[in-house]
Design goal:
The chain has helices spanning 2-21, 50-58, 118-122, 148-152, 177-181, 187-191, 202-215, 256-268, 272-293; strands spanning 36-41, 87-91, 105-109, 128-130, 136-138, 159-160, 170-171, 197-201, 235-238. It is α+β, with helices and mostly antiparallel strands and 298 residues long. It has one domain (44-258): 2-Layer Sandwich (Alpha-Beta Plaits), CATH 3.30.70.20. Helix 1 runs antiparallel to helix 9. The termini are close together. Residues 16-20 have low confidence and may be disordered.
Amino acid sequence: MTIARRQFLKSAGLGIAAMAAAPAHAWESKAPDDPLGCLVDVTRCIGCRKCELACNQVNNLPAPESSFEDMRVLDAKRRPTAGAYTVVNRYYPGPVGERGELVPSFVKVQCMHCQDPACVSACVTGALSKKENGTVHYDVDRCIGCRYCMIACPFEIPAYDFHDPLTPQVRKCTFCLDRLEEGKNPGCASICPTEAITFGKRSTLLDLARGRIENDPSRYENHIYGEHEGGGTSWMYIAGTPFAKLGFPGVPLEPLPRRSETIQHALFSYLWSPALLFGGLALTMKMLTGEKSNPDKE
């Protein structure tokens, strides 16, 4: 058994060394050069929920249980669902107003339409794709309902239509793709009464965000959320409060597919992983067989 164990460890070590020596996969970003996007200025949002209303109408979504004028829904934190592609949440991160009351901040939540989307990388059928105009598009005809996209998304956005037992879909913000192709702005950006949402080219939005921060540093945090998070997103935010206090998740700055796709390629290039697996199983069986045939041998 001592020789068998040594042979097993030696073989496994050689296999791992060979896998490590395999040529590294050069990951390539699939991000568009200068896609369309939206900049959300949290300091301008008044929590009116008009963006929710526009999203509901543009996408022909079911009517909510309570009207869009009912502000009591802001008492609980919400996430986008199969019937609501965008929601507004209220936070009380400070500061304190003139009368001693906490001043609320309102945050619109929807698909971030990442530059290199983890959901697209995880989708095994190509049902999700990144378009040149910046949208992360969902093709229901290709979806098999595996829901890997829901697991992969660092912003926890895709929702599953569990209420439809026959033709369930993964649902999320579409970035109003049909409107974009007609030369129109997204519904939420068109209806916002305070112009908290600005639509345009991503590079232009970044310049606008930097300009606002530089011109009024006491009003804004020196941080554009979405400029680098997750490798960059088409939806970006500026705020007067640290983003961690506004419910924004802390995600890696590098594109998540860079990690997952590189690891996958390293594991399966030249079939090293299957070779190690079956080789290890064969050696294990040999060791067990030898032990049964020679029970007294040490």
